[in-house]
Amino acid sequence: MSRIAKVGKAGATIGATMGVLAAGAAVGLAAERYMVGRSLKKADPRIDGPWRGESYDVNEEVVVAPDGVRLITETMGDPLAKKVVIFAHGYALDRRSWWYQWRDLPAHLGPETRLVRYDQRGHGESEYEPVDSINALGEDLHAVLTQYASEEVYLVGHSMGGMSILALARKYPELFGKVIKGVVMVSSTSGESSQSRLGTPILDLPLVSNYAPQILDFLADRSELVERGMRAGKDIAFVMTKRYSFDSQVDPRLVEFVSEMIRDTSIEVIADFFPLFQEFDAFEALRVIKKVPIEFFCGLSDRLTPPGHTTTMGEQIPEARVHLLPKTGHLLMLERPDQVSEAIVRLVRDEA
User: Where is coiled-coil annotated (predicted)?
Assistant: First the structure.
């Protein structure tokens, strides 16, 4: 059978499968959409969370990546602080995903520890130029680190942010132990990402996942139509975000907050990055980061980067602390913020 015929047959099969799935899910989604409205109405207005915005003072700045892309950063704390914590967010999110850590850590670490978070290229407010591997995100992180480096630097990465740390370690191993004194990786991987969906729930369907790059390229070519559809289908997006990001009963406004970050990420960026995850392999970088104290986190219900990724990394670094949390999904730093914040405090205070 010719390649064209195979692609056509695959397209027809996927189309038929999606039609059956859509029909079968229609009643359930209708019910869940009804529950979305009820959930948001019942949300306790007294509870603080990222949906309220940010009331603390931050400095917004720009870091220029090696290829000229302008990365937007925020800092909090003394610019002359001897200790700096840098936060790298995950795929289809932005720097606001560290909201709880930014709210809570100043009280524990004081102004003498500076906090830095940035939007990865193509995410949040940062500019975008396509890249051909995750290694470029390591270079972006290196640019951020160079601008804010101090005597001690601690790196915190979620999902793709953890991959950025490993890409940095592979290219600049001399920094670990000398400048970088500790690492926290949340819901991340050192490779073998073909086993995970990394933020693309629809690709969790086995048949569809076989053609994921082609599907995403197809959607990217119709980005305006796709993005209009994403915004029109906010209730469905809410349901999918809840299923694939959390496993406990979180505040519905937190789910909507995450849905907003995902909607704000262009389909072009989502399509461009997806094949890079499948090609990512930084297993050897684990030998570099083991020079410093490290803590790994993963939710036992994480369907996007399953716990096996974290246990594999932990097996390679026996000295590391590995935390596998029950009833927790992929967005662990939002679902279990205290555990992540406590790990950062341990590292910075040299209690690990």
Answer: none
- HSE value, Cβ hemisphere, 13 Å, CA-based, for 34: 5
Domain 59-352: state its class: alpha beta
Q: List, for residues 68-83, the tens digit of each pLDDT value.
A: 999 999 999 999 999 9
Give the mean pLDDT of 202-209: 44
Burial 52-80 (b: 16+ CB within 10 A, else e): eeeeeeeeeeebebeeebebbbbbbbeee
pTM: 0.82
In the chain, domain spans: 1-42, 59-352
- Within 199-336, where are the H helices? 206-209, 212-220, 223-232, 234-245, 252-263, 267-279, 286-289, 307-316, 332-335
Instruction: Report DSSP state, residue 94.
Output: -
Burial of 238 per CB tally in 10 Å (0-12, 13-18, 19+): buried
